[in-house]
Design brief:
Layout: H1 3-8, H2 18-29, H3 33-40, H4 44-52, H5 59-69, H6 73-97, H7 108-113, H8 124-134, H9 139-153, H10 163-178, H11 187-199, H12 205-218, E1 221-225, E2 236-242, E3 245-250, H13 257-273, E4 280-282, H14 304-317, H15 320-330, H16 335-345, H17 349-358
Parallel strand pairs: 1-3
Antiparallel strand pairs: 2-3, 2-4
Family: Belongs to the short-chain fatty acyl-CoA assimilation regulator (ScfR) family.
Protein name: ImmA/IrrE family metallo-endopeptidase
């Protein structure tokens, strides 16, 4: 292989300015810098600056070197581009070094467990891994993106949540959702599928956990189940990945079927009732009657889209008129009447019990075994 052929196939294992390659070529060919100047029409000073790495190699110079050396201009240009990228990477690393402490904000143990981080320590390598995970260039860019999301999050009751844990959970959901193949979303198809979706509430979790995502994918919805992360306070999220594909993400925060199904239909409500440009991150507060299952504005923090989605979920599961009739005419304050009513209306008995509890009709501590456990794994 001649020296010229070798340079054609040049693939650097380490980065160096193209001037080093040019000097190596001149030495092997026995060509002086002055001779190269005569061949290219470039000044002695300019050639020397390129060789010394003090001047960049422009596309015009690459073409002249092609003509004088026979080494294609694209080879010279690639060497220059690789060197400039390498220099930029060094500068970027130096800037990122100042932000290594930012890594400590994240759930490092969880990210390490998921294989996203090499260990649980704040380091430049882990900072770069986190930025790559979120698909952003710097912590400042990430913070700006989250500020924009928080505008949407104000539509929910999300309070006192760890924004870094929330961002981690949402990003995991988004990445998983993008891997789900879906038909194009059609609102009418989703509305017509509501009875079939509701019917799944009567199935045990080990059945619907497989059937529900498949059904949703045919409706243009990438349904994702992700375990709740500590301090996220998130029950679900809705986000449009494309105009034809929606993500609905659900956590197992409360670990019972009544809260799961309410959260699911709440997110479905967002898809049917609200625009495709909006993002919703939703929290169902804990026990004690705070969960808005009946449409009354118990929380001033609830914006109208959240109240509308609550109302949609509540009526999709058990219409108000049907529930009110049950409470006033047939409920006998025993689990048997709950089970009979659940079979009659076609939902799980846990959903009926949860509605009674949130309405303050049945204490939270009573008949817990009527609810099914819901947990997710990574």
């Amino acid at each position: 292989m001649t020296s010229r052929q070798r340079f054609y196939a040049y693939q650097p294992e380490s980065f160096a300015p193209p001037g080093e390659t040019l000097k190596e070529y001149l030495d092997e060919e026995g060509i002086s810098q002055a001779d190269l100047c005569r061949r290219t029409g470039l000044s002695t000073k300019h050639i020397n600056q390129i060789v010394q790495g003090a001047a960049s190699l422009s596309p015009e110079t690459a073409v002249l070197l092609d003509q004088a050396t026979g080494i294609p201009a694209i080879v010279w240009s690639r060497l220059e581009a690789a060197w400039q990228v390498h220099q930029s990477e060094i500068q970027t690393r130096a800037k990122l070094e100042e932000h290594v402490s930012w890594v400590s904000n994240f759930p490092l143990g969880y990210l390490h467990k998921m294989g996203i981080l090499r260990d649980r320590k704040p380091s430049l390598e882990n900072l770069q891994a986190i930025l790559k995970f979120f698909g952003v260039a710097s912590p400042d860019v990430a913070q700006q993106a989250w500020r924009e999301y928080r505008t949407a999050f104000r539509r929910s009751t999300l309070v006192d949540g760890d924004e870094y844990a929330v961002a981690t959970w949402l990003r995991l959901c988004e990445k998983a959702a993008r891997e789900v193949g879906c038909s194009n979303y059609n609102k009418q198809n989703l509305v017509e599928a509501l009875p079939e979706l509701r019917k799944l509430t009567m199935e045990p979790p080990q059945v619907w956990i497989k059937k529900l995502p498949d059904l949703c994918s045919k409706l243009g919805i990438a349904l994702v189940f992700k375990p709740a992360l500590k301090n996220t306070h998130v029950s679900g999220a809705t986000r449009w990945l494309t105009p034809e594909k929606a993500m609905v993400a659900l956590s197992d925060r409360f670990k019972t079927d009544d809260t799961f199904w309410f959260s699911f239909f709440h997110e479905i409500g967002h898809l049917i009732l609200h625009g495709k440009r909006l993002t919703f991150l939703d929290e169902n507060p804990g026990e004690g009657g705070e969960l808005l299952l009946h449409g009354d504005s118990k929380s001033d923090r609830k914006a109208s889209p959240e109240i509308e989605a609550d109302n949609f979920a509540r009526n999709a599961l058990i219409p108000d008129a049907v529930f009110d009739k049950f409470v006033t005419q047939t409920f006998t304050n025993d689990p048997g009447s709950i089970a009979r009513f659940a079979r009659k209306v076609g939902v799980s008995q846990g959903i009926v019990l949860g509605r009674l509890q949130h309405e303050g009709i049945v204490p939270w501590s009573r008949w817990r075994d009527m609810k099914q456990s819901v947990t997710f794994s990574d």
